[in-house]
Amino acid sequence: MDYHSIHGYDRASFDVPGTHRLPTVSASQALDELDNNASTHVSTGIEDLDRSLIANITADSQDTTKGGVQRGQVTEIWGPPGAGKTALGLQLTANALCDGDAVVWVDCFQVLQHDRLRAVTNATKARRNSQINSALDASESQEGDSSRFYHYSCFTLPHLVALVSRPTAKLIPNNCSLMVISSLSALVNSALPKSHDGKATSKSHKGPSPSAKRTQALLSIVNALHKLAATRNCAVVVLSQCATKMHSERGATLTAAVNASVWDQGISTRLVMFRDWAWQENNLTSVFLAGLQKLDGKACQEVVENVVAFKVELDGVSQVPYEALQTFELARHKRKLGQTELEVPDSEDDEDYGWADEDEAAMPAPPPQWQGSEDLILGQDIGQSEEENSEQEEPVTDDESIMK
């Protein structure tokens, strides 16, 4: 008579075999993966953005198609509503599915629209097939994609922690190359709101303060995501919202909704997304912009680097030509009035200095007020981007503040 026949087997242990150790990789396999960059990255569909996401890239390198989001790391994509975060996540999913890998999508605030994902995937496959001059059966390809796409809805924080902390082979397959967690910040801020007075502690209640609980939860989540990305060799992409942060000198600026130090240290790569508007032939047009803030665990020297412009359409995202100025002349030196050879107008003069009434009629209409323009972002068809409505720490009221 042994121990198990008397006491039975331990059913209370939540350890899953194979999740506490890194996968064993042979030397030949490691060298093959280094030579083939496509197996270590997931393409975003934007060539310049893929190139900027490659760490330690040389200036004379011409390989711009094998970059993208690094596998085995945690990448955060944050920005205001309507900036294209979900569209970029869908494009990443479509590229991973077209590569023959499995994808896990986790909803934390809004349910994913499968019709939109299907349209982006079909368009991505059509572009690839046109490049290689091959034709595939559409029905067979859709069935294969649906079998490799795993969709979960975790609208409570314990459900998400349980999914990422102890994943099974059925929940997250071994051939998974991408895991997208949508609106994680809304779930964290709802379950563990940020304390505005972190130093104040209640003497009547024992135990950790709400601020300490939030820090412990963030540390546990980011460690679980790192462990999941390393053991499964998949890219974990977190789509986060933004919040308004007040500064005494610079005023209000936009920041990530989850901006704790333990969270920032756990994020390997961070992308920020925003939009800009311009008048073209009396029409209001928008452009989506994505910039790099952190790469491979190292923060960029500037606040935002390698800004790339793209557009969001029904069939995915695509890059648009964009030429950024090398230097911005923010402040010019003032010249003396004698050097300008200009005449100072008399305030009592009624002259218009060549300004006619027909000139005012020929001017285009002024752009809309940016103050409180979230209704414009979410309720119009200007950008054709469908983003989640987030519950932020403070309402975002100035879209131009992200450019600061």
Automatic annotation (TrEMBL):
It is found in: Nucleus. GO terms for molecular function: ATP binding; ATP-dependent DNA damage sensor activity; crossover junction DNA endonuclease activity; four-way junction DNA binding. Pfam families: ATPase. One of its GO terms (biological process) is reciprocal meiotic recombination. PROSITE patterns: RECA_2. Keywords: ATP-binding, DNA damage, DNA repair, Nucleotide-binding, Nucleus. Residues 339-404 are annotated as: Disordered. GO terms for cellular component: Rad51B-Rad51C-Rad51D-XRCC2 complex; Rad51C-XRCC3 complex; replication fork. The keyword DNA repair applies. Its main location: nucleus. Residues 343-361, 384-404 have a biased composition (Acidic residues). Residues 38-242 form the RecA family profile domain. InterPro entries: HR_Repair_Mediator, KaiC-like_dom, P-loop_NTPase, RecA_ATP-bd. This is RecA family profile 1 domain-containing protein.
